[in-house]
Amino acid sequence: MRPIILGIFAALFFAFTFVLNQSMEIGGGSWLWSASLRYFFMLPLLILIVVCRNNLMVVWQELKENPASWLIWSTVGFGFFYAGICFAGAYGPGWLVAGTWQLTIISGIFLTPLFYENKIGRDGNLQSVRKKIPLKSLTFSILIVVGVIIMQLEFAVSISLKDALFCLIPILIASFAYPLGNRKMMELCNDRLDVFQRVLGMTIASLPFWILLSIIGVLTVGLPGKQQVGQSAIVAVFSGIIATVLFFAATDLVKDNMVKLGAVEATQSLEVLFALFGEIIFLSSPLPTSISLLGICFVMLGMILHSVYSSKKIHINSSIEA
Predict the structure, then answer these.
(1) How far is residue 302's CA from residue 279's CA, in Å, rounded to a whole number?
(2) Is the pLDDT of residue 125 over 90?
(3) How far apart are CA 154 and CA 214, in angstroms?
(4) pLDDT, tens only, 222-251
(5) How many angstroms separate the CA atoms of 111 and 227, rounded?
(6) What pLDDT is stored for residue 159 in this prediction?
(7) Is the pTM here over 0.85, yes or no?
(8) Predicted confidence band at 319 (pLDDT cuts at 50, 70, 90)?
(9) Distances (CA, A) of 81 to 2, 49, 67
(10) 306 contacts 137 by C-beta, under 8 angstroms
(11) Which residue ranges run through the membrane (predicted)?
(12) What does the alpha-carbon distance between residue 239 and residue 233 come to, in Å, rounded to a whole number?
């Protein structure tokens, strides 16, 4: 249950992204700065954490050994992910972005065949076998997504087709980019780096992407305002540092089990609940209706099924090992 709990807390801190990004959008801030400023603020904080743990040189050595892989998968996992989220926030409210983002639950499971695992074949030799999609985990994830759709249905009908597409398409890309980048980096690091080191390495490797976005921002909308800078700093700490580290720590614990990994990634469905309550408290959004409550029930049911199934698998494996 520890990975699930870490995932839930990660969802709580990730939810600040959607609420604060919506606040910045209301205040006239550009999505270009909302995206890039977060990672500029994350960098010195992560360096400080890793330096205090005396692990900085290891990160630098890993970056030098595989610079192309770090650049590609960090840009995918951090760049395409967060730029897509921020771009979508310019065309839809925070609750809609948070709700649509739950597509990553399905996306992460569909990425399973892209990875391999070592198994002993019939001839007794170790073989690299392509992983299969865990169908039961996919079923639970669909249940969660159905709940999210129900929650957002009454709101989505009031949005224009253009705004809906501009909100949906970048989030769809982000929903594949985040788990793909995360898993590829776990595969590349192969337990040589801890969570803090890996997040720092990915932040450094994605800097060219953020610098490019900031240059575009200067040329198109000018420099960001003080309010946007301050809110971006909060997002960097809450979502960029705390939530990312919690989520990566959770996925590290279950990275060799696709069912458990899918369960951890499914905890991020709670972001929509936390984001909804955050908008109610901080942005004076309307209270959830009965339809939204029905969606919440579906999401919670999916979460319970994920947790029960994951715990059952752990218990069975423990019994076999004993």
Answers:
(1) 24
(2) no
(3) 36
(4) 999 999 999 999 999 998 788 888 887 888
(5) 38
(6) 74
(7) no
(8) very low
(9) 26, 24, 20
(10) yes
(11) 37-56, 68-90, 96-116, 137-153, 159-178, 199-221, 233-254, 266-285, 291-309
(12) 10
